[in-house]
Amino acid sequence: MKNIFIIINIVLLTFFAFLGVELMYTSIEMSLSDNSLDLKEKVTSVKYDKEPVVLKKRDYKKIIKKNILKVMADRNEIPKDKKKNAEDISKLKATSLKLKLLGTIAGGNPEEAFAVIEDQRKKKQFLYQIGQSVQGAEIIKILRQKVVLNYQGEDQVLEMVFTPDLKIVKKKK
Questions:
Q1: Would you say 142 and 110 are in contact if contact means Cβ atoms under 8 Å apart?
Q2: Integer Cα distance of 156 and 47 in angstroms
C-alpha cells in the first residue's frame, strides 16, 4: 500500500512540473509575440518612394576599365610577350623524368607560383616553387597546367595529364 502512494506522488509531481513548465513557456511566448506584432506593424507601415535600381552591362564598364584585380577584361587578348612564350614552350619536349604534375597555382608574380609534383619513384608529393629542384631538374617556370624544367642543361616541359572522371557505382544489395 505504501508503494502505491509513492508512485501516485511521483506521477502527480511529474504532472505538476509539466504544467508549470508549459505555463512558463506559454507566458514567455505571449510576451515575445506581443512585441513582435508591434515590430511587424512598424515595418509594414514603411513605404519606399524609390524603385529598385537595375544596373545594366554599360554600368559596369567603369569597373572593368579600372581593372582593380589586374585581370584582363577580354581573355582572348593575349599580350605579344605571352604569345611568344607560349610558342617557345610548345616547342619544348616532354620531360623524361618520372614525375607527375598534379596541379599548379600560377599568377602574375612568379614568386607566388606553386606546383604540386609527384615523384613517382618515391611515391611522394611535394609543393615546389621556381628555383627548387626535383630529381636533379631545376624548376624554371610555373605556368597554368605546365611546368618548365631545366634538366642537364636542356629545357623540358612537364604537363598535367587529365583523366576522365570516375563514375561511382552503387552496389546492389
A1: yes
A2: 68
